[in-house]
Amino acid sequence: MDISEIQTIEHDVLVVGAGGAGIRAAIECAQLGLNTGMISKSLLGKAHTVMAEGGVAAALGNVDKRDNWKIHFRDTMRGGKFLNQWRMAELHARQAPDRVRELEEWGAVFDRTKDGLISQRNFGGHRYPRLAHVGDRTGLEMIRTLQDFCVHQGIATHMECTALDLFLDGGPPLARLAEGGRVAGLVAYWRETGRFVIFKAKAVIFATGGGGKAWRITSNSWEYTGDGLGMAYRAGAELIDLEFTQFHPTGMVWPPSVRGVLVTEGVRGDGGILLNNKNERFMFKYIPKKFAPETADTEEEASRWLEGKEGARRPPELLTRDEVARSIKREVEEGRGSPHGGVFLDIASKRSPEFIKKKLPSMYHQFKELAELDITKEPMEVGPTMHYFMGGIRVNSDTQETSVPGLFACGECAGGMHGANRLGGNSLSDLLVFGKLAGEGAGKYIKKLQGTPKLDAGQIGSIIRRATDILNRESGTNPFLVQEDLQDVMQKYVGIIRTADELKKGLEELKRLYQDAGKVKAHASPQYNPGWNAAIDLPNLLITSEAVTRAALMREESRGGHTRSDFYFESDEWLKYNVVIRKARDGNMEVEKVKRDDPPEELKRIAYASLEELEGTSGG
To answer: Which of 58, 120, 532, 540 lies 20 to 30 A from 549 at CA?
Structure first.
């Protein structure tokens, strides 16, 4: 194939994904003086970032002076069931306050305290009010601020441009990696015209989000098809912790057209309670022993906490998301669910209409417009929805570089920071902290780079032919039907509660779906071709689904977002290991149980310390 006639664009750094992590990484690269490009599958800022409505977690200590980075770190490690990468959790807790203040300097308008400081709200798993917020539209404000700032940084933004695959200098990815190969760029196509484009780059940063569209019920929008995971895997990068998928406990369940749409944790943070069909506040039955010392065990104490009374413990509705999601599922399965298969979330009985409309305006309008329900008067029906990937591409904690030289990852597509379960609000601070670190890491890599990576026409031609084969077939399967089939398989066999038999059945079904995906056909014109777009998404969706399923089968315990009913306990032995996935030389998926490094003694001491030991100690 003659690639000389294909449009070619050259950057020092190419950022793939234009949500919060991608934009923050691009800003950092531009401020380092690098020629920076950013491609987006949809539009600039059209990202899952806006779904993080409740706030950005940072130990500013504006509402409760006892808060500090050490307690935030401790909460994050406890929430992640101590499987987090220790260094990543430390960097996150230490740097989050600076990133939030930086965002404010760039124009973010946060809610304020009476003293004029950035206001912070309570959220599940956080000991103190820690989430800096803008009502329940924090992610939207963050994206607006980052967008406004980035357009003045000289960043070239390529919108409605879908990445197909990376190419390395000199030969096929796995072969080149063994010989010290490195990233040379990426092939993509313009969704509007169907024309291909080659991006030459010395470094590539993936900020592509997760793969929630592999499930039927999800809060994720159409873009979240595991693109970064699939491309990194095919290039030879390692994936980590993919068994840990977060089912947010509160998604809409009615009407069917909006099933899975997110209901922010801010509703519970501001006083909302969970009820079953017997009007019982059921979460008091499900308080785990490890959280019992810090959780209210009576409604009276929970009410005192809501009033701000000193000494009162947090209500059980603010346990970590994995605990709440499992509890809701059990209530429904035992016949105590709401009419449409969820439970009730009630804030109307706890807060005034004025308070609700001021603090939760998006939720008020969301239910009013989509469900014809007034949340200031009636309880909402909610249930678990596939929301977030704790696992992702394995990266170096300090630089965010992957095992492929020149490839970096940040945000949801990178794994390690959140361990087995993510705390609410940590996603927005994660993308700010590690977006910046990824940009810094790419800058340092380029500075040390010797020679410019070379284009390889063979790799580029192969990538393009795989995409055009879908258009050139005489007949084939419908890509939309294959994706729907995949969603049903993952929802049925790789859900909140898993068993070995179901996971093995899921793998059998995925083998069939790989064959179906290899025969998909889209009509011949590449312009405005949604069938072609869906077909191109399928390999990444399937790799992501297989990786999640194989990792879940290997981890024989229940921890955080991964629950096995045939191993319904946390194993001290499994705490010593991460599940790592890579592409083997024979093309199959290789799954390995990898021993974790011992934690630094000081971080271990902080993570296991009592609150009294850490309160008010901001130093260190």
So the answer is: 532
Each residue's pLDDT tens digit, 4-18: 899 999 999 999 999
- Give the position of tokens 């912070």: 120
Residue-by-residue DSSP string for 328-359? HHHHHHTT-S-TTSSEEEE-TTTS-HHHHHHH
Q: What is the mean pLDDT of residues 125-150?
A: 92
Give Cα 210 to chain centroid, integer Å. Answer: 5
What count of Cα atoms within 13 Å lies in the side-chain half-sphere of residue 28?
26
Helix (H, G, I), strand (E, B) or coil at 124: coil
Return the closest-CA partner of residue 165 out of 197, 209, 211.
197
pLDDT reading at 37 higher than 90: yes
Crossing angle between the packed helical segments 479-493 and 530-554, to the nearest 10 degrees: 20
Task: Check residue 355 and give left, alpha or beta (phi > 0: left; psi -120 to 50: alpha).
Answer: alpha
Residue partners of 389: CB distance under 8 A and separation at least 6: 210, 211, 212, 242, 244, 245, 246, 412, 413, 415
Residue bearing tokens 């069909």: 277
Which residue type sits at 609?
Answer: A
What is the layout of strands, in order, in the sheet containing 414-415? 414-415, 392-394, 239-240, 577-583, 589-595
Catalytic residue numbers, as ranges: 248, 268
> pLDDT of 387-424, one tens digit each?
999 999 999 999 999 999 999 999 999 999 999 999 98
Region label for 344, one of left (φ > 0), alpha (ψ between -120 and 50) or beta (otherwise): beta
Strand partners, 14: 37, 204
Q: At a CB cut-off of 8 Å and minimum separation 6, what does 355 contact?
A: 270
Residues 423-437 as b or e (16 or more Cβ within 10 Å = b): bbbbbbbbbbbbbbb
Q: Of the candidates 241, 242, 259, 240, which has an alpha carbon nearest to the alpha carbon of residue 250? A: 259
pTM: 0.92
Q: Is residue 171 scored above 70 in pLDDT?
A: no
Q: How far apart are CA 394 and CA 374, in angstroms?
A: 44
User: Nearest Cα to 552, choosing from 490, 488, 500?
Assistant: 500
Query: Contact, 186 vs 201, CB < 8 A?
Result: yes
- Cα separation, 321 vs 386, in Å, equals 12
Query: Bridge partners of 247?
Result: 386
Give the pLDDT mean for 528-540: 95
Of the candidate ranges 200-214, 300-314, 551-565, 574-588, the one whose mean pLDDT is the lowest: 300-314
Alpha-carbon gap, residue 69 to 618, rounded angstroms: 7
The DSSP-derived string for 359-418 is: H-HHHHHHHHHHS---TTTSPEEEEEEEEEES-EEE--TTT-B-SSTTEEE-GGGEESSS
CA–CA separation, 589 vs 575, rounded Å? 23
The full DSSP string for 183-217 is EEEEEEEETTT--EEEEEEEEEEE-----GGGSSS
Token output for 44: 């600039």
* pLDDT of 235: 95
Q: What's 405-420 look like in SS3? A: CCEEECHHHEECCCCC
In this predicted model, which residue has the larger pLDDT, 43 or 77?
77
Residues 386, 215: contact at Cβ < 8 Å?
yes
DSSP characters for 567-616? S-S--TTGGGEEEEEEE-TTSSEEEEEEEPPPPPHHHHHHHHS-HHHHTT
